[in-house]
Amino acid sequence: MTSGVHQRAKIQSTSPIAPLGIEAAVEAKANPSIQPRPKIFDEFALTDRVALVSGGNRGIGLETAITLCEAGARVVYCFDLPEEPSEVFLASQDFVRKLGNNSRLEYFRADVRDQQLLWKKAEEIGDKEQRLDICVAAAGIVRPGTGCLESPEEAFKEVIDVNTNGVFFTAQAAGRQMACFGRGGSIIMIASAAGSVAVKGPEVTSYTSAKSAVLQMARSMACELGCKKIRVNTLSPGYIHTQMTGAFLDMHPELLDEWSRLNPLGRIGRPDELRGVVTWLASDASTFCTGSDIIMDGGHHAW
Ligand SMILES: NC(=O)c1ccc[n+]([C@@H]2O[C@H](COP(=O)([O-])OP(=O)(O)OC[C@H]3O[C@@H](n4cnc5c(N)ncnc54)[C@H](O)[C@@H]3O)[C@@H](O)[C@H]2O)c1
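Above: query sequence and nicotinamide-adenine-dinucleotide SMILES. Below: predicted holo structure tokens.
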């Protein structure tokens, strides 16, 4: 494969840690002085990357933030509503400090509905760190309780405001910095399996509508931002045991069995089960993945 077109295909892109795989094997064969070594986990490393995570005070957002730190991120800035971070955030911050890889977790009070505030905070991060590589838009709410024919205007709008507009403002804020530094980046929007299928039990049309909008938002942003090497993907979890779902389970304990029966694995998921996919999406291990929805629902979709 030496013709011009193959050369052009090759120079379109190269891994920063090339050669990999077959290329590495061929190079090692040609040069016996090269000692082959495994590189697959190097591709997942987030060494020195800077990240912003919304909803990072607890749950999936915080789980994600810790994961990015473990993978080597220089710093992960967590945005959330409370003035002061939670006990579990402080414990996580301490845990990260003790990892010994110079990574750190920072907390900022910010409401994702406030576009100007998010732009400003992201700009401050960019000014301070001189890069912004990863964004995880995880802030979200659910407001069950009223059927779709009775849902008051404000209740419906509130969910759309946080779960759709807030995700957009977060992605925008981070994307502007990524574009500014010209290094590309990875934006991961936490959508939901409920963006593609309706939820059995609680009446949450506002939630499913908002999450569905996020799926299309990511595809559109991915198409606009591909030329800047900014990748935009969604991650769609099924039922995961967090405070959000815990509130439903407290009110309706029978839902645990019902939700567990909805997938072939026969259980709901743990937040830590998202660690691998988040690291993959954030890292150079997924550089050809954009505009995609990664479903992590124990097989709910397969039924
Ligand atoms: N838990 C699940 O089963 C599940 C499944 C699919 C998708 N998700 C999505 O994952 C994300 C995280 O959910 P979770 O289960 O960890 O819930 P959670 O309630 O534990 O965490 C959500 C976080 O978002 C924050 N938040 C809410 N409104 C905000 C605002 N206006 N500005 C900033 N932060 C705000 C909350 O304070 C909270 O810390 C949400 O987007 C949720 O819709 C959850």
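Residues 54-55, 57-61, 79-81, 111-113, 138-141, 162, 166, 190, 192, 237, 239-240, 242-245 surround nicotinamide-adenine-dinucleotide (CB under 6 Å).
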